[in-house]
Here is the input.
Amino acid sequence: MSVEEILKLMDSPTEEDKELIRKAYNFAETAHQSQKRYSGEPYFVHAFETAKILAELGLGTISISAGLLHDILEDAGVKPETIEKEFGKEILFLVEGVTKLGKLRYHGAERHIESLRKLFVAMSQDLRVLIIKLSDRLHNMRTLQYVPKEKQKRIASETLEIYAPLAYRLGIRKLNRELEDLSFSYVYPKEYEETKNLLKQKKKEDLEHLEKFSKSIKKGLAKSEITNITTDYRVKNLYSLFQKLKRKDNDIEKIYDILALRVIVPEVEDCYKVLGAIHAIWRPLPGRIKDYIAFPKPNGYHGLHTTVFTGDGNIVEIQIRTQEMHHDAEYGIASHFAYKKNTLGKKSGYVGNMAWFKQFLPSFIFGEPIKDSPANATTVYGASGKGVPNWVKDLAQFEKSDNPDQIEFIDNLKTDFFSNRIFIFTPKGDVIDLPIDSSPIDFAYAIHSDIGNHMTGAKVNGKMASFDQKLQNGDIVEIITKESAHPNIKWLEFAKTTMAKKHIKGAVEGKK
Ligand code: MN
Here is the structure.
């Protein structure tokens, strides 16, 4: 373990960058000195590995340093003032953000999963916080076997339901796949083994066909004078194969993309040339030609997909993309926070489009944006600061689309989540999602009707609050109850949710 391993992964860091990372490395190593992980390794190994994952994703000096320091507030008792003094406001902001996210807990309530995912994004404020948290989680998943058994399943479920989908929506497939497959074995051990065996058999058969077909493709394309290509293949990751099997009556013969052939070309227009040339030789399966260049997936994925009959009784999926699209498909949003390179808009005809999170941009959710943060500085991601957020403007564009992925996405946007919902915490960190302007009364009834019916007081962020106080996003609310207390007809004025109103009416009428 040495700081050089991290520096080596970076794209030509300056002396200043190296100095900052060395300083963060030494600081974190000292801060965690007396601590050990469940594995028995020094705690600092975790900070180091998290920073390494960030460097591999191509993130910059600030994020890597924050990765090294991400647990020192919570686990090593270092004061925020010390971090600010030693490393500046921006790094402190990132470390505090990661610490805050760590306090959110997942309890597997189906109906809250989507809210929780949105909350993670909203709480992050800066997407770098989320990427650091994802890297932290990846290392925790890689070492989950050392964690006490009773904790493993909760952590793995949380990863599968919250973190892996977030990595997917941010377009970071590299993290998404590993998070999924690592959790899969803990959450569904039996299905994991079954899927693994199934894939093993199928992969062997398919690989032979694919290698043969890959040669035919190269020959075929050469006839059309397309020679500047490379081919490659990818194997579907276990968890997404498992998900697909469920949708296809567990019939592996109905899945054509367990192995997919990839053709990488220099320019966007070459993608279409290659597609044309392939279709001229091999007959495509109807309904499986996807133009994700003209209509990218909501997570920003670009490329052309087609599935063809190979002529010898086999069916193969082909994915055509440029090197740039290929890189973005693995690294997604992370590539936009890269140290120097900014792949976005470099070439014509291809602009990243990670629409899902545009709606979570901090400037219109949480007031003042943080200065000097790429998430705010880059207009590509939306929030122009004032007025109509870009994602609202983009809706007009989306509505012209007839791509099912995007239609579903529009419906999602139309629910206009953050404009009318707030997230409130119980003192234990559970999240309750309520309509805007809700009061402690609504919160109490959302937890349980008994809590509402016997409420005598409420504390908001540790201070006593009135029953009509309007709750704010992120408030921590504690309800004080007494067996002899009962609802008052006046409460109806303060209640916002139908559920609270119904219970108050019921309780008041019941007393008469
Ligand atoms: Mn950590």
In short: Confidence is low (pLDDT under 50) at residues 339-401, 406-419. Strands lie at 230-235, 259-265, 290-291, 304-309, 315-322, 421-425, 431-435, 455-460, 463-465, 477-481. The chain is about 50% helix and 10% strand.
